[in-house]
Write a structure and sequence with these properties.
The protein has helices at 19-31, 78-90, 138-146, 150-174, 177-200; strands spanning 5-17, 35-40, 45-50, 55-63, 66-75, 94-101, 105-111, 114-122, 125-131. The chain starts with a strand and ends in a 9-residue tail after the last helix. It is an alpha+beta fold.
Length: 209
């Protein structure tokens, strides 16, 4: 039996819609019986979507590539959620999506239109249900180093490793061999990246300036 849907929250959105993307978004809403109208403003264009459940405004900022949808929005009507989720994937956008139901809270991180990380929250308990494999090369680290992001990346990597170690202990205690395997794979990827970052952080070659 499926959990009853309550709402979805889209945070830190960054979607760039071309003309065709915007037409598809509007078309999906209209085909679902959603009432729509536009409000013109100086800084952006607002699409107002009204259903029998809620009324929401989507603020689009005009750009050279089309229309940019940013910020956060909380939706309770599945028609709005389905249309926005489709557009997120279609436009290869970025967002953190939180889905609330009678069961666990599901948190998904999207980048380039793909889910990179999906986590279930059961009260204080966390469970990673999906992690997109990450391949780290020395070229990736060099690019990060050149952009001066490497100093910030190292402490983040250490925190991520601490989190994965906790997840490993939970998986071992639960007797879940597949979860143990996935966590170990992720730990090895983080370990390799950390070693490369720390090695490159020792000295800044002149050629990279």
């Amino acid at each position: 039996m499926q959990n009853h849907f309550h709402q979805a929250e889209y945070c830190d959105m960054n979607l760039v819609l071309g003309k065709t993307d915007l037409e598809h978004f509007i078309g999906q809403l209209a085909s679902g019986g959603v009432s729509l109208y536009w409000k013109d403003r100086h800084e952006d264009v607002v699409l107002v979507a009204t259903t029998g459940i809620e009324k929401k405004e989507f603020h689009f900022q005009p750009s050279e590539d089309g229309f940019v949808l940013t910020g956060s929005v909380i939706l309770q009507d599945k028609r709005l959620v389905n249309a926005l989720q489709y557009t997120l994937i279609r436009t290869k956008g970025e967002a953190v999506v939180k889905q609330f139901s009678e069961g666990p809270i599901l948190i998904s991180k999207f980048a380039n239109g793909e889910a990179l990380h999906i986590m279930e929250l059961h009260g204080p308990r966390k469970k990673v249900v999906y992690e997109k494999p990450i391949r780290v090369s020395s070229e990736d680290v060099i690019r990060a180093f050149k952009s001066r992001d490497i100093e910030q990346r190292i402490p983040v990597l250490k925190l991520e490793m601490d989190y994965e170690l906790v997840s490993l202990a939970d998986a071992m205690q639960a007797g879940d061999p597949e979860a143990v395997r996935l966590v170990k794979v992720r730990l090895e990827e983080l370990r390799r990246e950390l070693m490369l970052c720390e090695a490159f952080d020792q000295h800044i070659p002149e050629v990279l300036h």
